[in-house]
Design brief:
Layout: E1 2-6, H1 13-24, E2 28-30, H2 31-41, H3 44-54, H4 61-71, E3 81-84, H5 90-102, E4 109-114, H6 117-125, E5 127-129, E6 136-138, H7 166-189, E7 193-197, H8 202-213
Parallel strand pairs: 1-3, 1-4, 2-3, 4-7
Antiparallel strand pairs: 5-6
Amino acid sequence: MRLVLFGPPGAGKGTQAKRLEELLKVPQLSTGDMLRAAKREGTELGKTAAEYMDAGKLVPDEVVVGLIEQRIQQPDCADGFMLDGFPRTIPQADALDAMLDKAGQKIEHVVSIEVPDDNIVQRLSNRRSCPACGAVYHLVHVPPAVDNTCDKCGHVGLDQRDDDQPDAIRVRLKAFHDQTSPLKALYDERGILHRVDGTSSPEEVFARIQGALGAGA
C-alpha cells in the first residue's frame, strides 16, 4: 500500500504513523529525515540538499522527489510506503505523480487526520518540557506530579516552546491549511482521500483509519 498521511501539528500524526507502520508493514518516509540522512551520507543529492539547508533555504522539489525516488527503490519499500511531510503543494503532488508513474506506481490512499483548530491550540499550548532531561508533559493530560517540576529529574522550571504559544500555533495552522486545502481537493477528486476524525483517543482514531483503509479491525 502506498499512502500519504496528512495532519496539522498536534493532530497525533506521529502516533498514528507508528501504528500504521506496524499494521501495514511499510516504512514511514519522512522527507525531513531523508534530507538529513542524505546530507549526512554525502550523496550527490545530499550535497545539493545541504547547500540549500545550510543557507536556510527551501530544498527544491526536484531534489526532494529525487530522494524519494531513491528511497522507494530500497527493499523495505517493495510492498509500499507511507509519505509524511510530502507533498505539501500541488506542484509537489504533480512531481510525485510523474516520478511514481515512471515506476508503474501511484498513491492509493491519502489519510487526513482532522482536528478543529481550537482543539489543536488547546493541545499544543499546554505542552511543557524539562530543559534538563527533555521529558515532555501536558498540563491537562500528562501533568507533572508537582507543579512546574520534572518528575524524572526533579528540575524546577518547565519550558514552553515559543511556537507553542497560542498566536504562534494559529500562524502554523493557517500555513498548514493554506498548503493542504488544494491537495485535499485534488485527492478528493480522485476518490482516494479519507478524512478521519482525530478528536478521540489514539486508539479510536487508529480504528477509524483502519476502517478507512480497509485494513482490518
